Each structure stands twice: as structure tokens, then as C-alpha cells.
Amino acid sequence: MLHKDNCHTSSEVGHAVHDEPAIQVERLAMAFGEGPARRTIIDGLSLTVARGEFLCIVGASGCGKTTLLRLLAGLARPTEGRIDFHGKPVNGPSRERAIVFQDYGRALLPWRTVGGNIALALETCKVPKVEHAERVKQLAETMGLSHAVNHYPSQLSGGMQQRVQIARCLAQNPTLLLMDEPFGALDAITRQGLQDEVARLAQVHGTTVVFITHDLEEAIYLGDRVVVLAANPGRILRDIPVDVPRPRHQLTTREDQKFLALRHEIFGLLEGH
Question: Where is the ABC transporter domain (predicted)?
Fold first, then answer.
């Protein structure tokens, strides 16, 4: 269980999607360069994400998925348009918005243990040091890291390193979790285990999730909605609700006729663009 402290505390109730928006994106545009070299990555993109929603975004390479995530995180400023988070403009990073990158190896500090990497977020949030050991213990248990809390990143598998990065993000108690192809470099079994773990955590804590992936089945399996982006420039091609019952299971859900129909629809959209 996540505790209340100086950082924002997520709701600890069952998964629910609320009508009020967590994110509102209006006519977003992002371009790089000047003159003839100017390249528009995203153009005219508008999007609303409800509180507690698990939104997955798919699209071909170069369609602006990662750029969009960086804009939502406040790590970059748009050329045009507006992003509101809980009704307030996004003007920079916030502890309420945590981001999990694909490159887990570079995200962790190699000279810190697992516990030390998790504690980094507690230090940033100015949680009293006397509380760190218990909080780290709880987060390590949540992410299946109890046996490795004194290990260094170099001693861990890729899947375990990604668990550490997720645990560190959870230490912030974010209301929005931004995930940039977090499982793309992992083997199939490890990836599926982490998919289920992230889905469970989002449901338990009512966290809003925006999840970038190239894996169509992953997007359908995790998402309440799947947004399909077209490229050159990045724009929304289709916004598709995922009418597949929860809880979902790796074998039976992927064999569900609704799941297969969605996979066929999204694949057809991407193949045509």
C-alpha cells in the first residue's frame, strides 16, 4: 500500500474511470528546426484522458508517440496548443506525473542499490528519512523486489531493473503514470508478468496511465482505449474504446473474439498508413 506524505497520494480504491478529465490536450503541435529544415512532428492533436483511465497509444515509428509523452510529462514545451492536467496548464515536470522509460538501464543509478534507487524518489519528495526504510520495504514487496533490495542494478535482469524503475516512480505516489514502451526490450514471459502487475496497480490505486507501445496486443490487453496515431505529421487516426471485459487474463483474453476483432481493426489501420 502506498502511504500519504509530502507527495501527491493516489486513490486507493478499485479501478474506475471518471468523467472528469485528468488530461486535456487541445490543438497540440510540435516542430523542430527552422526554415527549410523545419520538421513538424505533431500537428493539430486534441485528446482527453479521463481520471483513472488506462490509455494506450500505438503508431508507426516517427509518428510522435514519445514526443507526445514528453510533452505530457512537461519535459518539453509544445510549439502550439495547450495541455491541461487536472485543469491546470502543464508548464514543466511535476511529481504528480511520473514517467517510466524503456531504457531502464540508463534510468537507474549504478552506484546505488535497489533500495537506494527507490529511496531517491523519497529524497526528492522530502519524505522524512526515518520513514525511508519502511517505505522502501513496502515498495520492494509491491514490485517483487524484496530479495534484491541490497543488490546493484548490474546484478539484476532487465525485468528486475524495470521493476526498480517502476517502484521508484510509485514512490512519488503519482496520479498519472506515463510509460514509454516500458516492456519493449523484455522477453515475452517477463513482459506479460509486468503487464499484469501494472494493470493491477493502476486498478488498485485509481492511477491514470498513458502507455506507449508498438505491440498491438499489449495495447488492447492493457487499455480502456487505444489511440492510433498516423505519422508525418503525428495526428490521431482513430480513437478506439476497448470493449473487452476485466479482469483480463493472458491466455483467455487474447483468444476473445472482441480482442481479435480489435487487433484486426488496428492492424488494418496501421497497414494502410
Answer: 23-256
What pLDDT, in 10s, does the model give residues 157-204? 999 999 999 999 999 889 999 999 999 888 999 999 999 999 999 999
* Burial status of residue 10 (CB atoms within 10 A of its CB: 0-12, 13-18, 19 or more): buried
Q: Where in the chain is the domain with CATH 3.40.50.300?
A: 49-76+92-96+175-272
Q: In Å, how far are 74, 144, 173, 218 from 192, measured between CA atoms?
A: 29, 15, 24, 9
Q: Report how many helices (DSSP H) and strands (DSSP E) the chain contains, helices first.
A: 8, 10
Homologous superfamily assigned to 49-76+92-96+175-272: P-loop containing nucleotide triphosphate hydrolases (3.40.50.300)
Cell numbers that stand for 73 in this block = 510529462
Helix (H, G, I), strand (E, B) or coil at 245: coil
The whole-model pTM stands at 0.89
Exposed/middle/buried for residue 5 (C-beta within 10 Å: 0-12, 13-18, 19+): middle
